[in-house]
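Dear colleague,

Following up on yesterday's call, I've attached the two folding results inline so they're easy to grep. Please treat them as preliminary; we haven't cross-checked anything against experimental data yet. The first protein's sequence and structure tokens come first.
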Amino acid sequence: MAAEKNVTFESALAELEKIVRQLESGGADLDASIASYERGMALKKLCEDKLKEAQTRIEKITLGNDGAVKTEKFSVSE
């Protein structure tokens, strides 16, 4: 999946949504469904990795007690 690193989050998510719709329709045979499921899992991981990467790049801007502007690392738990 090394070539997948050039895939955007949005295109990976769109493909994943398409796969989910196909699987939910139940129209594919078992082998095609398994292949689609495996591709979907790879896309899910790719999306998760891209979100984690974006999260590490985000900083939260805050105003300190002294009135100075400072930045802090973003935390999901906030």
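Below is the second protein, in the same order (sequence, then structure):
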Amino acid sequence: MDRKRLMEEAIHSGEMEGAYVSEEFRKDADEYVKGDISIEDLMRRTKRRWIVERKEAAHVG
């Protein structure tokens, strides 16, 4: 399966499950599809963003 189709299916699956797919993730996914970053880089960026957002939410609530 090619990278573009993989990302389209992953995003669609997430949205069907009620997940919010951020613009930042979509941009990173586009870089992955173009071959500019590896899947490991995509996962690292996503995890880093998720950790930061959780910390910010913890300080608000």
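For the second protein, one point worth flagging: Residues 3-60 form one domain.

Best wishes,
A.L.
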